[in-house]
Hints:
single chain, TIM Barrel
Amino acid sequence: xxxxxxxxxxxxxxxxxxxxxxxxxxxxxxxxxxxxxxxxxxxxxxxxxxxxxxxxxxxxxxxxxxxxxxxxxxxxxxxxxxxxxxxxxxxxxxxxxxxxxxxxxxxxxxxxxxxxxxxxxxxxxxxxxxxxxxxxxxxxxxxxxxxxxxxxxxxxxxxxxxxxxxxxxxxxxxxxxxxxxxxxxxxxxxxxxxxxxxxxxxxxxxxxxxxxxxxxxxxxxxxxxxxxxxxxxxxxxxxxxxxxxxxxxxxxxxxxxxxxxxxxxxxxxxxxxxxxxxxxxxxxxxxxxxxxxxxx
Length: 296
């Protein structure tokens, strides 16, 4: 059975900048604005095709801001590549039932590529992007080894539900330190939240503002009323709701003004207002979490 770890030891910022699909000068300007505004965490992935761009951007931003690499939390993900003209060729799937791939070598190569592209000698956190059914445990055990070697400080997963986390806990040595999922006021995922809290698994929320333009929230008075009450935007209300629930939101923006606004959360909502936002839940699933392994 997997062993837990001390949540108190987690040196993870309470908000980060999502970077997909930013590249080039747009990404560089976003990273500079983020660091100047107080962000210290950047999230990318193998299949975002922008690790090299992020590495360059951080180097440029370090020179401009004077903020050192040691102060910056860099997170990436191992996984399949299926867009932008690149295809890894079913990296984490068996083409035949009896096929056995060298998953350790594949994952280690991806991590080494990330180190090279990001221009760093260690990674603060690496996640498994999806719970790939054929080699899920093999991928995790490789991350455990790389974590013990000091190449990765924290290891975790993304798009995982309780059944995926239980599989790791029951068969591996280390309990995932992070689970990155999409949680929103219309999909609060309270069962998963409770499970992760009980196992000391930090919850990150990707695309936390994605659903603000959906009818369920756009036409609802609760967020607009709270915006007026606290004199902030609806985006700030949702991000603060994330943080007061103990989640680590990863909003993406290329606008320096919006980047600054998203981290300007120096207000505290009353518990009753948090509950009002929770009441919007309707288990609305917008994204296909496990697009590569539906139903797994």
